[in-house]
Amino acid sequence: MAIASAALGFPRIGAKREVKKASEAYWAGKISAEELQKVAKEQRLQRWQTLQQQGVEIIPSGDFTLYDHVLDFNYTFNIIPKRFAEAKLSALDRYFAMGRGHQKDGVDLEAQEMQKWFDSNYHYIKSEVSSSTEFRLNDTKPVDEFLEAKEAGIQTRPVLVGPITALLLGKAGRDEADRASFEPLSLLGKLVPVYGELLKKLQEAGATEVQIDEPSLVMDVTANLAKEYQSTFEALAQAAPGLKITLATYFGRLDKNVEYVAKLPVSALHVDLDRAPDQLDQVLAAVKPTQLKLSLGLVSGRNIWKNDFAASIAIAKKAVEALGEDRVVVASSSSLLHTPVTLANESRLSADVKDWFSFATEKAAEVATIAKALSGADVQAALDANKKSIDARRAFEKDSDASVRDRLNKVEPAMYDRKSAFPTRKAAQDKVYDLPTFPTTTIGSFPQTKEIRLARSKNTKGELSTEEYEKFLENEIKSAVDFQEAIDIDILVHGEPERNDMSQYFGEQLQGFVFTENAWVQSYGSRYVRPPIIVSDVSRPHPMTVRWSSYAQSLTKRPMKGMLTGPVTILNWSFPRADVSKEVQCKQLALALRDEVCDLANAGIFAIQVDEPAIREGLPLRQVDWDAYLTWAVDSFKLATAGVEDKTQIHSHFCYSDFGLIFEHIKRLDADVISVEASKSDLKLLEVFHKHGYENLIGPGLYDIHSPRVPSVQEMKDRLAAFMKALPSQKYIFVNPDCGLKTRGWAETKAALENLVEVAKWARQQYQ
Ligand code: MET
Ligand SMILES: [Zn+2]
Fold first, then answer.
1. Where along the chain is L-homocysteine bound (predicted)?
2. What is the CATH class of 4-398?
3. Residue 147 in contact with residue 205, Cβ under 8 Å?
């Protein structure tokens, strides 16, 4: 009997970003809804055909989306907040409004909140539910897409977000009376019957299998939900007895949950053996005495590396031995949506580097090949070719930069710590610049105007010489410096006009990264990113930012703040290597940045900010793993910043909030100054400071830069006053916005910063 192959999901953006282009054209009123739907339909067909051509047998449907699959779920199950339900909009526009807001023809709707999808960089739309939510089938998208595939002659396995995960990811809506204590999961009993109805419809449409995604099962929250899972899946199995359910878990390990999960009335369990290969024995032991099939997530849905067939086959054989051939399926570890569509459109990667990678299309073929190999088909040529690539990669790896490894091995414990403790450093810093109390500063970037983007793209295309481009950047920096002096900011920044992206900018200058032309992955909606790929040991061949910061400093007597992206953030926003640990990669990045930090200090830059907005999002899914991650993450930051003398003021910046959870670790960074996003979460953050105390300097973000709204002097005074109350020992609070200003326009930036300076001047009087 042959072993089946499955893909849990596929990118939905199109190999040439067709879906982005069409949706943005639709939003701009340039194409009709029908034209957009036509593109969507073509893309769906192409995805199915691609998977089929690559030899995958179990092909997903319903995982295509015009915006977000959780939003699709909400729309299908009528989880539509009142403000959207009542708006006079077409069905399609209502759907988009929920994802991205709507401001047209007198309708003004804010988008719903986004959140990161587990530990990926994909953002989903958070459902808003309440006691009055009435689940019903508002549309039949999963059924429609199943039928669409069937008409094209392709039998698919519909994919649905699982009901428990869906509720766990949601939050109390605005119409919930008691939002603080409302538990979305309390609605499970109401959701399950409607969910069952949908399964029944799928069955009637001819589906024989369905994939229900419950990635929450790899997190701590589900440890006590055995009963909920049991009753839910019993009800679902009853609602559609003809449908074989594959319960999919991914991004981590089931741990103890596997004990109850293996008893659920489903026909197959899918586990992630890419992220959590060590769980195999435990899973096999739990599954063996049951009737369950086991779907082995062997081909990574999260990275871009070629699968090592020999290793995968060895793992799969173990499963076959334990369960028998007919109980094993070979699959991608998760949906492939987190990987780029295809390698076929990369013409600039060198042949040897390209040979290391597999994107979604190639990964589909890998799944099929592994399954065939296990079924005894003759795939020797593919296995040989794979071995050759893997060997070549290993050989390269072996000669990858020995000097970098050597340097890392020689890092002494003392290199992680500043020379003196904070009070001594503070005294040294005060001698260099006698800053006023409540010094004002900004977080780094100034508006990335059309002109800046145009100049950059002309330079890339060769239409603007590098000399002209650099002159242009200098002018930008000069006007930023003039502006800050004019409105009386105390610690200046150069404004980051030279950066396309805060992570990519550094990756492009570091040794060890490669960049693609078309390897886009969806970040949210129509926003796609092209993460840099770390392929070898990382080092810094030359200074990266020193010339810009020095130039800025040469224009003013006020202190300049250099601006770098931290090692953890660069790592988290790239595709990491798979052959060495993230810790090693992060520390290599840290050493490269350490050189940059020292060069900036030697060039006379007084303050250096090393941004770590992504430190929080890199947290492992299970809490027992947090300490290990935070230890090397914090150490990496320290390694990057501790090389300077006491007189250099090290800043760091965090945003995307909710870092209260990791506050003890933030303290351990020992930055002289941290700026934190605070404007949207006042109370929460105050509690954190109150509870943990904080001795070094803080710059609570006094206004939200994510909106063009100009904050009033009064509201910022109130916020500052609240902080002064919570931090009575801090007589030296920094006054700043909550993040960089790159997404803003100049008009609101000027107005807001003028108000900010006024607040600082008021505070100097108020708190003498
Ligand atoms: C997402 S954090 C951004 C920090 C960066 N220095 C900026 O101002 O843009
Ligand atoms: Zn920020």
1. 443-445, 611
2. alpha beta
3. yes
| 610 Cβ inside 6 Å of ligand 1 | no
Task: Note the pLDDT tens digit of each residue in 627-674.
Answer: 999 999 999 999 999 999 999 999 999 886 667 788 899 999 999 999
Mean pLDDT in residue range 24-50: 98
Question: Which residues share a beta bridge with 283?
Answer: none
User: Taking 70 as the threshold, does the pLDDT of residue 7 lie above it?
Assistant: yes
Report the alpha-carbon distance of residue 518 to residue 116 in Å, rounded: 23
Q: What is the pLDDT of residue 564?
A: 98
Ligand 1 pocket mutation, candidates 116, 121, 442, 443, criterion most atoms within 8 A of CB: 443
CATH code for the part of the protein at 411-766: 3.20.20.210
Place of tokens 């990635």: 215
Residue 479 has pLDDT above 90, yes or no: yes
CB-CB neighbours of 689 under 10 Å: 19
Round to whole Å and give the CA distance between 514 and 507: 8
- 182: Cβ contacts below 8 Å, ≥ 6 apart: 130, 131, 172, 176
pLDDT of residue 512: 96
pLDDT of residue 660: 79
For a ligand 1 pocket test, name from 739, 741, 742, 744 the mutation site with the most ligand atoms within 8 angstroms of its C-beta: 739
- Tens of pLDDT, residue by residue over 716-762, are 999 999 888 877 766 678 999 999 999 899 999 999 999 999 999 99
Sign of the C-alpha dihedral computed for residues 657, 658, 664 and 665 taken in this order = negative
* Predicted pLDDT of residue 193: 98
The per-residue b/e assignment along 642-668, b for 16 or more CB within 10 angstroms, e otherwise, is bbbebebbbbbbbbebebbebbebbbe
**183 CB-near residues (< 8 Å, 6+ apart):** none
Examine domains 4-398 and 411-766 and report if their fold is the same.
yes
| Residue type, position 210, single letter | V
Long-range (24+ apart) CB contacts under 8 A made by 38-43 are 39/14, 40/64, 40/66, 41/148, 42/18, 43/12, 43/14, 43/18, 43/19
Ligand 1 atom with least separation from CA of 740: 8
Residue whose pair of structure tokens reads 């100034």 in the numeric block: 446
Whole-Å CA distances, 744 to 28, 207, 704, 749? 21, 49, 11, 7
Bridge partners (DSSP) of residue 305 are 357
Residue located nearest, by CA, to atom 7 of ligand 1: 740
CA distance 95 to 43: 19
Name 600's Cβ contacts closer than 8 Å, sequence gap at least 6: 545, 546, 549, 562, 564, 608
Which residues contribute to the annotated binding site? 20, 121, 443-445, 496, 573, 611, 653, 655, 677, 739
The tens digit of pLDDT for each residue in 125-160 reads: 999 999 999 999 999 999 999 999 999 999 999 999
What are the tens digits of pLDDT across the range 551-582?
Answer: 999 999 999 999 999 999 999 999 999 999 99
Each domain of the chain, given as residue ranges in start order, spans 4-398, 411-766
Say whether 692 is catalytic: no
Which ligand 1 atom lies nearest to the CA of residue 565?
A: 6
Asked whether 742 lines ligand 1 (CB < 6 A), one says yes
